[in-house]
Design brief:
seven-stranded mixed beta sheet; alpha/beta
């Protein structure tokens, strides 16, 4: 009998330490994209089947998912965020010929909360980017872009913002690859300085924590490795100072060396991570989509209410956090599809005509 009592005591003690009352858990949903590169219109998925490619619904299929998730979140009292990791418009006729404005109008239409700043945002010059920012109903975040004349953060992007909703205080920041200054024409980034990603991001995370935020989310246009195992092995061969001095920084470096980031939404490398990669030291949860508007990311986080910390996460999709936007699976939102069709008619006119044939 004493043995039975002892076993029951151990079970109860274990439960008190490791069990979580479901009433203490709240859900936070994050929908995310990166490296859209203007891929908002329906397109053929030739990478799946070059002979008989299925149709991707693009931004209209993404909009249908976003609307459903947002409606459910509103009913349940759940916090939902729609975020992007940068490189928004350059790459399609709709994106480039509209100078990016068609993509911004789409993002306003579906209700993005924030985007990071990608290197390709400067492809048409910083003045064009300023016009896109002016037209945006969402935040543009990057903490390492400085004005060389004033020495302060570039005024058109924010180093950090705080989003308070549903009883949670979310700190949002972003960072842009320093390689931008070499990838762009010099006059496109004239007057701007891109400072080290690790150093500057740590400053903003420290700032946000001093504001007593509950969760820190960073939008990093730096990129996770193509191969997570190989990427982490390479990381272990260099020190933090090496990464700072040599200037070759990956998102794995950010997750490993910057203390205090809970969630890292990445861009720049067009390699989707169906399962989040979690740094084994800081436990920063890293997310990344494939590029060109073929996917939408969706992940649900469980937030422990007493401590306001992440207790776990789950993927609504069967095969991970990434949803392939097949038109037959995610029927396009009619209003968004009408908008995208109008943009295609405007910017693709004349570009589908055959002007010659070469054998």
């Amino acid at each position: 009998m004493k043995g039975l009592v002892a076993i029951l005591a151990i079970i109860l003690l274990t439960s008190s330490f490791f069990g979580k009352d479901s009433s203490d858990l709240e859900r936070m949903t994050i929908l995310f994209s990166n490296d859209i590169h203007g891929g908002i219109a329906p397109q053929k998925a030739e990478f799946l089947n070059p002979d008989f490619p299925p149709m991707l619904g693009g931004g209209a299929s993404a909009a249908a998912i976003i609307k459903k998730v947002r409606d459910d979140a509103e009913k349940d009292g759940t916090l939902e965020l729609l975020l992007d990791g940068g490189d928004l418009f350059q790459g399609t006729l709709v994106g480039t010929r509209s100078s990016g404005m068609a993509v911004i109008e789409y993002m306003n239409l579906v209700g993005y909360d924030a985007t990071g700043v990608g290197n390709h945002e400067f492809d048409l010059g910083k003045d064009n980017l300023i016009e896109l920012i002016k037209a945006s109903d969402f935040h543009w975040l990057s903490c390492n872009i400085y004005d060389t004349e004033t020495g302060d953060h570039w005024e058109w992007v924010k180093p950090a913002v705080i989003h308070e909703e549903k009883g949670l205080k979310i700190g949002l920041t972003g960072v842009t690859t320093v390689a931008t200054q070499f990838m762009s024409f010099p006059d496109h980034v004239a007057g701007l300085e891109f400072r080290n990603e690790i150093v500057e991001l740590q400053k903003q995370v420290d700032y946000l924590q001093a504001q007593n935020v509950d969760i820190v989310i960073a939008l990093a246009h730096v990129g996770l490795a193509y191969n997570p195992r190989k990427g982490y092995e390479e990381l272990k061969e260099r020190t933090k100072q090496d990464a700072i001095d040599k200037g070759h920084v990956t998102s794995m470096d950010l997750a490993h060396y910057v203390r205090g980031i809970d969630i890292l939404v990445n861009g720049h490398i067009h390699k989707g991570y169906e399962r989040p990669w979690e740094d084994p030291v800081n436990h920063t949860i890293c997310l990344q989509n494939y590029g060109n508007g073929s996917n939408l990311g969706w992940i649900d986080f469980e937030i422990d209410q007493p401590t306001k910390t992440i207790a776990g996460y789950s993927s609504p999709a069967d095969n991970g956090t990434l949803l392939l936007l097949l038109q037959d699976q995610f029927w396009p939102d009619s209003n968004v599809l009408a908008f995208l069709t109008e943009q295609q008619e405007k910017y693709e006119d004349g570009f589908r005509e055959v002007v010659g044939v070469s054998k």
